[in-house]
């Protein structure tokens, strides 16, 4: 081997390493440990149809239940997991867990409600459709229970290959949505070629409604473009009644945010369904 003295190379890297790198390595090895020791959890945030106020789906959001630090936000470890490749294992765990939970809800007789799983660009490979199909089969889960949220970053490279993967996923009956819409670089001319069902207006735009004229204009434009393209539009990060009112008037189809509910553990989500919310049957 080139590095015949491992101790020396470690020492070399330590000397050179700034606090940020050390922190990243600490999180990475912690996350590896978390994967093997059941420290990840999925939370579920309901999505509501504006016209009916009913639950139409749930976004699955991963949490790291750290023995000392408590709940660690994905904002802290997903970008790192993406850059190290660990996202693939995290993503496999998330899809498995989300389908297991959806199968429980399906077996309980709930009307189909899409459970949406976030999928990073690095997970969007040729093997993904097969893995999704296999997982649905194993849980005997109807595909109308599953949705994948992808971001514009996924669409940036090798667009023909990406469209091929998208087609294979939607042919299964699984829905696709475009997350954080408006923050990336995707070319609008491609939008009509993507087999997506839904555009998600990024929270950074929702936040500025109704005071920031630019954010209002961008949200309205996304909504009317979505309508023209026959896509559903959902706004994420809805926290106030003013925002809801604006979005309703602008013709937005669905909302998701703290105004209705935060991401919740499955049992609290079920309690919400039992006591507070109605499902769209
Ligand atoms: P995202 O997919 O855009 O998810 C929406 C984020 O907004 C979630 O943050 C959610 O908790 C938060 N949120 C929802 N409503 C509100 C609101 O009214 N106000 C505010 N301030 N925030 C709200 P979270 O759970 O921290 O996740 C952050 C990001 O991490 C996600 O953004 C997604 O990009 C990524 N992520 C989460 N889980 C997964 C996963 O399982 N796989 C992958 N690849 N990425 C994930
Ligand atoms: Mg999402
Ligand atoms: Mg989003
Ligand atoms: Mg977002």
From TrEMBL:
Source domain of life: Bacteria
Domain spans labelled EAL: 24-277
Transmembrane segments: none
Protein name per Swiss-Prot or TrEMBL: EAL domain-containing protein
Organism field: Massilia horti
Taxonomic path: Bacteria, Pseudomonadati, Pseudomonadota, Betaproteobacteria, Burkholderiales
Portion held of the full protein: 402 to 682 of 682
